Structure formats: C-alpha cells, structure tokens
Protein: Farnesyl diphosphate synthase
Amino acid sequence: MDLKDILDAKLKIIDDALEQYLPKEKNCQDIIFESMRYSVFAGGKRLRPILMLAACEFADGKIEDVLPFCCAIEMIHTYSLIHDDLPAMDNDDFRRGKLTNHKVYGEGIAILAGDGLLNYAYELMLKAILQNPVNWERKVAAMYEIASASGIYGMIGGQVIDLLSENKQIDGETLDFIHLHKTAALIIASIRAGAMIGGADETMMACLTEYGKNVGLGFQITDDILDIVGNEEKLGKKVGSDIENQKATYPSIHGMEKSVQKVQELFHKSVSAMEQYHEKAEFFIRLADYLVKRDY
Structure:
C-alpha cells in the first residue's frame, strides 16, 4: 500500500477519536471548547499520534488501548503550538494556512485554550486507565513518558532555551539541545509510549528510541531548511520567520549544504536502528524517508 494511503488511514482513526473525545457541549464556557477544537482541527500531519499508534501495533498491542494516549499527545502538541504562536513567543499570524488561535479568539482565550488542552490530555489518559485497567502499569509508564517529555526537562525546557537564544549567537551544541528537547523529545515519547502500551521488549524499545531520536532531529533540521527554501502555500505558514525572529537554525550555524548532509546522515541512522526487524519495520523506514526529505 502507498505510504500516503497508510498515513491517511491512521490519520482518520485519530481524527475520529479526537472528534469523539474533545468536548463540544453548549454551556457558559463553550468558547473554550470552540477555541480548543479550532486549533486541533486546523489541519496537521498528526505525526506524533500516528507514530504512537504505529509503535503500539509494531509491538502487537491493541489500537483501543493506545488511542486515548494518541489523542492526548496531539492535544499536548497543539497546546504547544497555540502558545508558541503568541506575541510573547514567536508572534505568528498563521498556522497550517489558517489564522492562529490568538488572532481569532484573542490572547487570553488562546492561552486558556492551550492550558485546557494540556490539562484535558491528562484527564483523558487517566480516565482511560481507570476505565480499562488491564496492563495499567504499562499505561502509567507511558503517561509518565509523555509527561516528562512535555515538561521542563523536555519540550518546555527546549522552548525556554529557544526563547533565551533569540538575538544571540549560539553554538551548535546549544542548538542541538533546543532541537532535541523542543521537537524531538515529544516524537521520541510518542514512539516509546506506544511501544510501552503494546508491551515491547527491551531490544525493541532501544531500537525504536534510537529511531525516534534520529527522525525527530532530522524532522526539525528539515523544518529549519524549509523556513528558508520552502513553499509558504505548501507549508501553511510564513517562510523566513526564523530569520525575522533572529533565531539560530542549522543552516545559519552550519550552512545549507552541511544541514542537508546532516539530514541524510540522520535518515540513514534511523533506518539502521530498525534494520533487524526487516519487513516488519517497513512503515517506519518509509516514514523516515518522507519526513526528512520534504520538498527541499
């Protein structure tokens, strides 16, 4: 089957679940539900939940066990985008080709929508564990993986250094820290959490973790490249924002040629991490190729 067809099928499973889980009732605070849903359903590749779903399936786990966690990781990712777009952060007007949340609902509601998605993600995971406590230890471990990757030692930590590094000259080591924590951490956690819920053994966990680290970093470096040479219509956001905000990127520190070479190196490392699983790993290998070779 074509990779796009596989991705579309998994995306539909996740979107249907998000539609079911996200609140939409009408009451006095329904503006927050509307704002949350606006950003969640504004588009996007659903990369993190797809990776989590695929990792669970790879470990022979059940879709129904992992699906609430897939939705939770997408809510956490979306919250981070809403807050990232705020005037105090990246100050972006468009995301995925649509007006950013604060441009539609105002800064106050946008902040609360992000807070709401983050909190609701944990409500959803805890409720799933309470309602289906089979293999609850795996699910709690997966939840901890998601929490730590999203927090001050993961995504938020990366965002902090990213914010503090604006308008400054930083070295490659600092940039790697930003990319590995701000972007790759949640990608790695998505894969690890899915594998945990599926019951993966230590060898499989190690291979998937190495895969996630290389794909996550390659994905972000590709984003750095596309911010310079990408097509705004295809990307759904403004090109050149990193330069405008005076943010350090792989091309600005290492040059474009070395950045492209680094992406290729990370792709080969991600493939090597999964080679022992042969045909069973085909989806992950094809996905890595797609993610790190996007239109440049």
